[in-house]
Amino acid sequence: MSSRRVLHVITSLDRGGTEGFLAGLAPKLRARGVEQEIAVMVDGGDHATTLRDAGFVVHELGMSRGVPDPRGLLRLARCMKAFEPDVVQGWLYHANLVAALVKSVAAPSAKLIWNIRSVEMDPADYGWSLRLVVKLGAWLSRRPAAVVFNSDAGRQAHQNLGFAPDRLTVIQNGIDTQKFRPMPDARAAMRASLGLNDATVVAAVIARNDPAKDLPGTIAALDHAGGVTGVFVGTGTDTLDAGQHVTLGMRRDVPEILSACDMVVLGSKSEGFPNAVAEGMAAGLPAVATDVGDVPLIVGDCGRVVPAEDPMALSAAIAAIAQMSPGERAALGARARAHIEQSFSMDVCVDRFAALYEH
After folding, report:
1. What is the residue extent of each domain of the chain?
2. Start and end of every Glycosyltransferase subfamily 4-like N-terminal domain (predicted)?
3. Predicted pLDDT at 123
């Protein structure tokens, strides 16, 4: 049983994969005796509420995206001095740098751990400021005791960017299979609320509207597949030009939405460990996904994996699942859930983080 005190520093607590992962990880670590507080650079966010409701102290640093703010750094320094953490754990590029800078002054004896959840980025898709932050991260990557990735693809990509190889380690995401599970009793009501009849084949696309997710390519693939309706859930998806497909923006009832669907689809150009695919599979859905990050390990033989940035290949795979009988899809979905339960347990993930704090 650990008695470590960990201060998590994260860029925001809006709805997103990393933010949701931390919100799920923190209670599991607390059950192992790890005392934690969370400092968030940008105020607000649904997961800030979730964590507070679970009894965690969440410090809001009052910073703005893309705007350095010395007042936020001072607030973080005060948090560190008051909490006296054994470990300062940064989450995502900006928060990693902020955590390193402030820890060196306010908690010099604490262990520093960074978390990076992305793989490679296309420079054309992102601004110069983020590219600079990544370069600074590589330059300072010997400062942390460990830089944690959720996929081997992410580890390799960042080693190629100049991050110190001996600091890089992989802890794959754990999936909450109690939260994400088949909910057959919710299917009819959710379909009705989305304006979908029972005969429609529905594909869940759970992703924020970001260039790396290639949602326009996914829309094109769904259109070409014919007879399949996509349900897009995630920040900014309600602004998509998606034609006949359903665009919901950010929602809090993703497990229930998955119950109304027949497959989960990911059309990303790059990923590390895409939680959305694994969570959809845990909900009993076959997966169709592009060959990015650890997708082949996640999907296994429980769906289709196709090349990235190839809408026609993605479309053909979507059509292949759509043309199965409902019984065939259900059997493939049951196998998908069993695969996630066996291979991507949250308990193993929590064990590895707890061990990292100790050693």
Report:
1. 5-174+345-358, 184-343
2. 16-178
3. 54
Residue where the block lists tokens 């990303």: 268
Examine domains 5-174+345-358 and 184-343 and report if their fold is the same. Answer: yes
For position 338, what pLDDT does the model report?
Answer: 97
First to last CA, the chain: 14
Comparing C-alpha atoms, which of 306, 300, 136, 134 is closest to residue 217?
A: 306
Task: Determine contact, residues 204/285, Cβ cutoff 8 Å.
Answer: yes
Distance from C-alpha of 156 to C-alpha of 160, rounded to nearest angstrom: 6
343 burial via Cβ count (<10 Å: 0-12, 13-18, 19+): middle
Q: Looking at this protein, which amino acid is placed at residue 335?
A: R
pLDDT of residue 1: 42
The answer on pLDDT for 124 being more than 50 is: yes
What's at 181, amino acid-wise? R
d(CA 170, CA 150): 6
Helices 70-83 and 93-106: angle between axes, nearest 10 degrees: 60
Which DSSP state fits 172?
Answer: P
Tokens standing for 82?
């008051």
The superfamily (CATH) of domain 5-174+345-358 is: Glycogen Phosphorylase B; (3.40.50.2000)
pTM for the model stands at 0.77
* Residue 65, pLDDT score: 76
- Are 99 and 90 a contacting pair, CB within 8 Å? yes
SS3 166: helix
* Helical ranges in the chain per DSSP H: 17-31, 46-53, 70-83, 93-106, 128-139, 152-160, 187-194, 215-225, 254-259, 275-282, 295-299, 311-322, 326-343, 346-358
DSSP, collapsed to helix, strand or coil, labels residue 269 as coil
Question: Is 3.90.1150.10 the CATH number for 184-343?
Answer: no
Long-range contacts of 241-244 (CB under 8 A, 24+ apart): 243/219
